[in-house]
Design a protein that fits this description.
The chain is α/β, with parallel strands linked by helices. It folds into 2 domains: 262 residues, Aldolase class I (TIM Barrel, Alpha-Beta Barrel); 69 residues, no CATH class. The protein has 13 helices and 13 strands. An 8-stranded parallel beta sheet has the order 3-11-10-8-7-6-5-4. The chain starts with a helix and ends with a helix.
Length: 356
């Protein structure tokens, strides 16, 4: 009965209820195990396409093929365990962006979510398949650029848009200066502005709020502001089914509020992480020498960055934190236990119902 009273998120032919998209978290944090468990509860499960496959131990010539195979395997594994909505997050900044999108098309995923840059030419890669395209933006201006480009060149528009605020985990679409000076537009205002913009489109699209959303009360707040749904990442890390090593999950459980900090990432963007000795070393100007064989990120200059972000995140996913850190949202310190996905979603549904 509760599920009927909770508004569903409709993205074209897809129905997602409760209206929650699980955030795509790399490297190797949200894979097939988590995505399928989330999809089985009516939400949208999302696989992060970055850093899949054993590419670290392969020559540069095999980088693309290994990652393609890794993503294909994760999609098929998720499909084998769920008939629910399965999407893939593909970051524009990846040097193999187009190749990964092609794998998504071949495997006919339900949706492709794309941020860390503007996916201006994403529609041309879909080859007419019914795959929902959802850009991640941090401003109305960014969505307007995408919509104009897509309409002009491909006579189409996004199927939905995710607006991500500054409280999100991982890489943030804001300047370090604005974050330090607390001059970033609040997510509540961003959602209102995006809803106003999308309602004026020829065919209005759903707005999905993301960044710092922790419980059902938060979800309802954004639904009342006009959002059609939310994206949540941090809460799903602390689940039994999350694909990451237990040590990564325990970093969340052990974190205090003051441990959640923002650092400058080698990709050229700020990133929210859980502070540890390695983070302190980085903030103090320390460097970890490395050789780059793959150039996985278009914006990374291996000759000037202090450490390899891909290696650090890959190590963290395996629970090795000597020269690594865990990405985390601003509310990660509020996670106190590891629970099944079903328990988490049931709790969120109850909280939504109580706050509607």
């Amino acid at each position: 009965m509760i599920k009927k009273d909770i508004p569903a998120l409709h993205i074209g032919s897809l129905t997602i209820c409760p209206p929650i998209i699980q955030g795509g978290m790399g490297v190797r944090v949200s894979g097939s195990n988590l995505a399928s468990a989330v999809a089985n509860e009516g939400c949208a499960g999302v696989i992060a396409s970055v850093g899949l496959g054993d590419y670290e131990n392969q020559p540069a010539s095999k980088f693309v093929a290994v990652n393609n195979d890794g993503l294909r395997n994760e999609i098929r594994a998720a499909r084998a365990k769920s008939n629910g909505v399965i999407g893939v997050n593909v970051m524009v900044v990846l040097s193999n962006f187009e190749e990964l999108v092609k794998v998504c098309v071949e495997e006919e995923v339900d949706m492709i979510i794309s941020g860390s840059g503007l996916p201006l030419d994403l529609p041309k890669l879909i080859q007419g398949k019914d795959i929902k395209l959802i850009p991640i933006v941090s401003s109305v201006r960014a969505l307007d650029v995408i919509c104009r480009k897509w309409q002009q060149n491909y006579q189409t528009q996004p199927d939905a848009v995710i607006v991500e605020g500054v409280m999100a985990g991982g890489h943030l679409g804001y300047s370090m200066e604005d974050i330090k000076n607390d001059t970033v537009t609040p997510l509540e205002q961003l959602v209102t502005e995006l809803v106003d913009y999308t309602q004026k489109m020829e065919k209005p699209i759903p707005v999905i709020a993301a960044g710092g959303i922790f419980d059902g009360k938060d979800i309802v707040k954004f639904l009342k502001l006009g959002a059609s749904g939310v994206q949540m990442g941090t809460r799903f890390v602390c689940t039994d089914e999350c694909d990451v090593d237990p040590a990564f999950k325990n970093a969340y459980i052990q974190a205090k509020k003051e441990d959640i900090v923002v650092i400058k990432s080698p990709v050229g963007l700020p990133g929210r992480v859980i502070k540890n000795d390695f983070v302190d070393n980085v903030n103090a100007g320390g460097e970890i020498p490395f050789k780059c064989r793959h150039h996985c990120l278009r914006t990374c200059n291996p000759k000037t960055v202090p450490f390899c972000i891909a290696k650090s995140l890959g190590d963290a996913s395996r629970g090795v934190f000597d020269n690594a850190f865990a990405f985390a949202g601003s509310n990660a310190y509020r996670c106190t236990e590891i629970i099944p996905v079903k328990t988490l979603v049931d709790t969120l549904k109850k909280e939504i119902q109580e706050n509607l």
